[in-house]
Amino acid sequence: GLKKKEVNVLCLGLDNSGKTTIINQLKPSNAQAQDIVPTIGFSIEKFKTSSLSFTVFDMSGQGRYRNLWEHYYKEGQAIIFVIDSSDKLRMVVAKEELDTLLNHPDIKHRRIPILFFANKMDLRDALSSVKVSQLLCLENIKDKPWHICASNAVQGEGLQEGVDWLQGTDL
Ligand code: GTP
Ligand code: MG
């Protein structure tokens, strides 16, 4: 059959935001992990859609590992940036990490698509995706295609919408 186009995706965001849970849900059910633990360093995962074959660099969001992220920016062709919508205290930290990412020389001048997941929408005190978008000042991103989806990674809700969007960008 036809070989699917291969795309390297960087999965970024603070620790506990749900990155590994999201990537796990996108894998075929027979490849899904039952227990998800905090990522140490990073983990390479793969999943396929109808037209693309994704290799995901699922990075740890813990402070001590965030300096690893930039070493993979050059290889990344798309970014999935995950936010815990209920973590109001650390929204400013998430914004700082996003701004650092956007200003990095390996990212700054590229039209790399960024898919944001406003994750944990099921939690009672979760902010809406519109509110998350405002707090992160996403409207200031003018030189890259971006999209934000509310998601519940535990139930797998909102993930397909995001992947469909990513697939529709000119990867
Ligand atoms: P690091 O690997 O440490 O950077 O964290 P991570 O971003 O990969 O987070 P992980 O996927 O390990 O999830 C952290 C915790 O949040 C786990 O207990 C998940 O079950 C939980 N979680 C993830 N997504 C959701 C969600 O949408 N809703 C709720 N309620 N919990 C979630
Ligand atoms: Mg993880």
Write a structural description.
- Belongs to the small GTPase superfamily. Arf family.
- Keywords: Cell membrane, Cell projection, Cilium biogenesis/degradation, Cytoplasm, Cytoskeleton, GTP-binding, Lipoprotein, Magnesium, Membrane, Metal-binding, Myristate, Nucleotide-binding.
- Pfam families: Arf (PF00025).
- Mg(2+) binds at residues 20, 39.
- It is a peripheral membrane protein.
- The chain has helices spanning 19-26, 91-102, 129-135, 159-168; strands at 5-12, 42-48, 52-59, 78-84, 114-119, 146-150.
- By secondary structure, it is of the alpha/beta class.
- It has a six-stranded mixed β-sheet with strand order 2-3-1-4-5-6, with helices on both faces.
- α3 (129-135) links the parallel β5 and β6.
- The longest helix has 12 residues, at 91-102.
- The mean pLDDT is 97.
- It binds guanosine-5'-triphosphate and magnesium ion.
- Residues 19-20, 38-39, 58 line the site of magnesium ion.
List strands and helices in order, with pairings:
Layout: E1 5-12, H1 19-26, E2 42-48, E3 52-59, E4 78-84, H2 91-102, E5 114-119, H3 129-135, E6 146-150, H4 159-168
Parallel strand pairs: 1-3, 1-4, 4-5, 5-6
Antiparallel strand pairs: 2-3
The structure holds guanosine-5'-triphosphate and magnesium ion.
Keywords: Cell membrane, Cell projection, Cilium biogenesis/degradation, Cytoplasm, Cytoskeleton, GTP-binding, Lipoprotein, Magnesium, Membrane, Metal-binding, Myristate, Nucleotide-binding
InterPro entries: Arl6, P-loop_NTPase, Small_GTP-bd, Small_GTPase_ARF, Small_GTPase_ARF/SAR
Subcellular location: Cell projection, Cilium membrane; Cytoplasm, Cytoskeleton, Cilium axoneme; Cytoplasm, Cytoskeleton, Cilium basal body
